[in-house]
Amino acid sequence: MTRIVQKVLVLVMLFALVGMMMWSRNKSRGELCTDLVVEIANADSSAFVTSAGVKTQLEKSGIKTISLPMGEINTDKIETELERSEYLERAECTKCPGGVLLVRATQIVPVLRVFDGDRSYYINRAGKQMDATSAYHVDVPVVEGHFTPRYPATRILPLVNIIADDATLNELVAMYVMVDSNNVYIVPRINGHIVNVGNMDNLAGKMDKLKLFYSEVLPKVGWEKYDTISLKWDYRVVATRREKTKKIELDYNSIYDEPPADLQTMSIDMPADTTKKPTTDNPTNN
Fold this sequence. Notes:
286 residues; 13 strands
């Protein structure tokens, strides 16, 4: 008999708990939104997204929150609208007790600045674009070229990342120039030559060859002796003399185990004005 009473009491408590939860939910749904709180998740000294700016974007898109019942506020719609902004990577919207609507927004984190014709813009790792303006500047690698949906600027990120992780090379590189998918150039801070990386294949081996060339060859023959250093050929670095009289080939066959050379990439056709491209990231040149 005692066990039956205990089971009945447990059932009564469960029903009461469920009823309270349903009552609380209904009450919260009818509760009016009294405050919209916006937090910028990665705000720092380079912050360009503000709480006021996020609220203004919601107002311009016709999304109202204050004084509306919490149950009528569509948090998914708010998140989708905010993530359309070129300045935000993501947004999370949460309904909190007391009629508070909390929005946590993450501003875009640029990893590359692109100069494409008359346009300049930043991109994040996912390729989302943010137009560059004089009001905002961030020190990131610079690439110049013509990019398309089929060949976006993010295709050069593996090269940018491998150089960023190498302290020696990172100090040497000023910018990148993409002529086409098989001719991606590094423009060093050292005036006098450019480096043709070729395509984005076997980047680790290419960078090892470049560092060896920098450490073993250029200090002996002079840093301005060659105008182009090509890494696009397997087994060797090909350095072209400035006077265009002949090419100096260095055999790396005994050092690197690479696949056979691709003969279709054996030509170097560098536009004459490529070395005159801007080598600094100046936001005033937009």
